[in-house]
Design goal:
The chain has 215 residues and is an alpha+beta fold. It is built from six helices and eleven strands. The strands form two sheets. Strands 1, 5, 6, 7, 8 and 9 form a six-stranded antiparallel β-sheet that branches. A five-stranded antiparallel β-sheet has the order 4-3-2-10-11. A hairpin with a 2-residue loop joins strand 2 and strand 3.
Length: 215
């Protein structure tokens, strides 16, 4: 914050406090009525904000630690076409068709601070989409891409509200698992912490594909 801004804020705050103090001594009844009305307004605003928060969180799952939130099983369905079975720990599982050489899973994460942390509210998450990607830049530009939406949205969308209005005591984070290779018979677990997603190979086919991809 710049000095001019700080001076303006402090001067305004000081002026309001001096006027409020004078008003209390000159007309205490008026001041008490104004104070009561202000308190009621603050309670209404705080209550409304809490209700919006509660409604928004109904679309998110609680995240207490480095939890496994989903598992993937990959099977070939054609040239650079794959059938991906996505088993979600807390949610609706499904089988999807992806094009490309790699896959990625994205999630929206909500973290809390201030008074919400006093109640020890764990971060929340919502799986957002499953997508495929080609290794070839030319294919990535011109070939058919595949993106599967895993969220139905709905209002209020707490994540979008925080990004748009910078809500107090809430932080919206976009988490993405690193692109991982497609391979016949490969299985992966996706784990999530408050900072993002991590994809972990869980069988030999997956480990082999990761080794070949990283070489």
């Amino acid at each position: 914050m710049s000095f001019p801004s700080a001076i303006a804020i402090l001067a305004t705050l000081g002026g309001v406090l001096v006027i409020a103090g004078l008003a209390f001594f000159i007309r205490p009844k008026w001041f008490l009525g104004w104070l009561k009305g202000t308190l009621v307004l603050c309670l209404l605003l705080a209550g409304g904000y809490s209700l919006v928060m509660a409604a928004g969180l109904t679309r998110y799952q609680s995240l207490a630690s480095m939890d496994t939130i989903a598992s993937l099983r990959i099977a070939p369905a054609g040239e650079q076409t794959w059938t991906v079975a996505l088993d979600i720990t807390e949610g609706e599982s499904g089988v999807y068709s992806l094009n490309g050489d790699q896959w990625q899973l994205d999630a929206r994460i909500i973290r809390f601070s201030g008074p919400f942390r006093w109640f020890d509210i764990a971060p929340g998450y919502r799986l957002e989409r499953l997508s495929g990607r080609y290794l070839s830049l030319e294919q990535e530009r011109y070939s058919e891409r595949s993106v599967v939406s895993l969220s139905s949205g709905g209002w209020p969308d707490l994540w979008e509200l925080e990004r748009t209005f910078n809500l107090p005591f809430v932080e919206a984070v976009y988490g993405s698992a690193t692109f991982m290779p497609m391979a016949a018979g490969a299985t992966f677990d996706v784990r999530l912490s408050s900072t993002g997603l991590v994809a972990m190979p869980t069988n030999e086919a997956a480990f082999r594909s990761v080794r070949l991809w990283s070489e």
